From TrEMBL:
Cited SUPFAM superfamilies: MetI-like (SSF161098)
Classification lineage: Bacteria, Bacillati, Actinomycetota, Actinomycetes, Micrococcales
Family: Belongs to the binding-protein-dependent transport system permease family.
Designated name of the protein: Carbohydrate ABC transporter membrane protein 2 (CUT1 family)
Transmembrane segment boundaries: 61-87, 99-120, 132-155, 176-198, 235-256
PANTHER family membership: INNER MEMBRANE ABC TRANSPORTER PERMEASE PROTEIN YCJP (PTHR32243:SF18), MALTOSE TRANSPORT SYSTEM PERMEASE-RELATED (PTHR32243)
Any one GO CC term of the record: plasma membrane
Domain ABC transmembrane type-1: 64-256
Amino acid sequence: MSRKVSNALGLVVALVWVFPVYWMVSSSFLDSTQVRSKDPVFWPFGGDASAYGRVFDDSFLASMRLSVTVTLITVVVALILAFLTAIAVSRFRFRGRKALVLTVLIVQMIPAEGLFISQYKMLEGWHLLNSILGLSLLYVAAVLPFTVWMLRGFVEGIPVDLEHAAMIDGCSRTRAFFVVTFPLLAPGLVACGVYAFLQAWNEFTLATVVMSPSNRTVPLWLRGLTTSSNAAIDWPGVMAGAVLVAVPVMVFFIIVQNKMTSGLVAGAVKG
């Protein structure tokens, strides 16, 4: 396949991927009549940002604060636990190590829906239903197996001889790890952090089960905009809400995109 054909194919794929995002943003500036028209309006000429004013209210801000808090807790706790677990199973030999790795792999295969009842009863018994701590606990448990498995590949890809060389030069084992190995793990930590962030930010079903209707994350808040009859749904408002929900994700990607790309590529060849 020639280079021109490859570029043209890549451009077509990019346009197909970008168009739904463009349609979401464009529709947020139209009025309901234009959005519901049989003739699609591709350019929002003459539109306004009134839909953003309608959805940017106290309920949106409350949902945004809840989602940001739960997501940050999930990312930080999951990365710390995954990092320590990955180091343990990669650098140390202890009884039950293989069983632990196998358990982590098996846990990933359990459908999330099969755990809903037990998770609900567990949080109910701990008085953590409809709480940030309870929801964060479930999200950490959901993302931890994959982050451990992914980070383990990064740790095993870094030769332990580098630490040994630093120890010969006078470093303690702890200092050798943090000076030599830890910086090399940064792309892996970023890649795992992105995965945990997306899982926690976009999660819908668990939040529906354990949170009350008055205490909603942003996916539940966005779903709440479409619960009326189809004729009464404010579709420009829904599109504006979707844009607002996507903004933190885009900002996060802009910040970590360089490290994330190198981390995903490195993780693809190590394991």
